[in-house]
Amino acid sequence: MSEKRILIVEDEQPIREMITFALGAAGYTTVEAADARAALALIAERVPDLILLDWMLPGASGLELARRLKKDELTRDVPVIMLTARAEEEDKIHGLESGADDYVTKPFSPRELAARIKAVLRRGSGQGSDEAFEADGLRLEPLSHRVTAREQTVDIGPTEYRLLEFFMSHPERVYSRSQLLDRVWGSNVYVEERTVDVHIRRLRKVLEPSGHDVLIQTVRGTGYRFSTRT
Q: In the CATH hierarchy, which fold is given to the domain comprising 133-226?
């Protein structure tokens, strides 16, 4: 049985109850909040292992809350799965760019949701090498889960960290979006290829102040590579 604690932020009580029942059966501990304010109060008491976050909330929206959580040192590494009835691709991109790690469209089955949660938590637990990687003043240390650029700490999200770790451990090789999904997200994860582009943009953004964004190169018509060569 899992002891992972999941915070459900959803203003519709029947949906909260359905999710709570399904996740309880899957072995998770759950806590519930109907809005952003209640969610923040619960997080202050104890940081959850994962947050299920509804897009449309009274007061502050789920997108606003996700952005706030990703900026806070206490919660920036907590995975977030957005729950929403908005199924358009651009809506998904907005959700991912706000800091969400995955996106589940309503209506969804409890079984699908449990599978998504399991996949995201497994990604977050990452089983990688303990060896530090360094390239042109950019350093990634798996043991401390720290990234520094020219000896300055880089504030990086969990998905971008995993993506950078993969790139730095496999330099100078081109990977397609589907290959990156398999190697970084996992072959059994329900994520679209466009998601890779979103996280590449986010990774470049955090590396831009030090000039290391140029190491993440686009290979037109093929995919992406990590290279110190221009």
A: Arc Repressor Mutant, subunit A (1.10.10)
pTM of the model: 0.61
Task: Give residue-wise pLDDT tens across range 120-176.
Answer: 887 665 545 567 899 999 999 988 889 999 999 999 988 899 899 999 988 888 999
Rg (CA), the chain: 18
Q: Is the pLDDT of residue 95 over 70?
A: no
Domain parsing of the chain, residue ranges: 5-125, 133-226
What does the alpha-carbon distance between residue 107 and residue 139 come to, in Å, rounded to a whole number? 42
CATH number for 5-125 (one of 3.30.230.10, 3.40.50.300, 3.40.50.2300, 3.30.1330.40): it is 3.40.50.2300
